[in-house]
Amino acid sequence: MRRKHWSELTPWQRRTAVATGVAEVAFAAAAWTDLALRPPQFVRGRKLWWALAILVNFAGPIAYFRWGRRA
After folding, report:
1. What end-to-end distance do the CA atoms of the chain give, in Å?
2. Spatial contact of 23 and 4, defined as CB atoms under 8 Å apart
3. H or E element: which one contains 62?
4. What is the 3-state secondary structure (H, E, C) of 5-53?
5. DSSP reduced 3-state for 69
6. Cα 51 to chain center, whole Å?
7. Phi, psi at residue 43, to the nearest 5°?
8. CA 29, CA 6: separation in Å to the nearest integer?
9. What CA–CA distance (Å, rounded) separates 24 from 59?
10. pLDDT value of position 7
11. In angstroms, rounded to a whole number, what is the distance separating the alpha carbons of residues 39 and 37?
């Protein structure tokens, strides 16, 4: 099965792709902002590793918000 080009997508598929991309970037930006503002003693593990983990699509920010922060 070959990949479709942008011009071959329906308007609904285009809107869905754009909305997913925007949500992913916003979620990652929120995670990076929280990580940058949070003191190191309230982060589980090294901040550098969490910053890199956040790059992994939706899984990175979810993991950071779930397991990376201390109360």
Report:
1. 47
2. no
3. helix 59-63
4. CHHHCCHHHHHHHHHHHHHHHHHHHHHHHHHHHCCHHHECCCHHHHHHH
5. strand
6. 10
7. -120, 130
8. 26
9. 10
10. 93
11. 6
Structure tokens at 46: 């090294």
Neighbours of 31 (CB within 10 A): 22
Q: How far is CA 23 from CA 14, 20, 63, in A?
A: 14, 5, 16
Contact residues for 47 (Cβ-Cβ < 8 A; gap 6+): 35, 40
**Predicted confidence band at 36 (pLDDT cuts at 50, 70, 90)?**
very high
Per the CB < 8 A criterion, the answer to whether 4 and 14 are in contact is no
Mean pLDDT throughout 4-27?
96
- Domain ranges for the chain: 22-68
CB atoms closer than 10 angstroms to residue 68: 23
DSSP code for 56: S
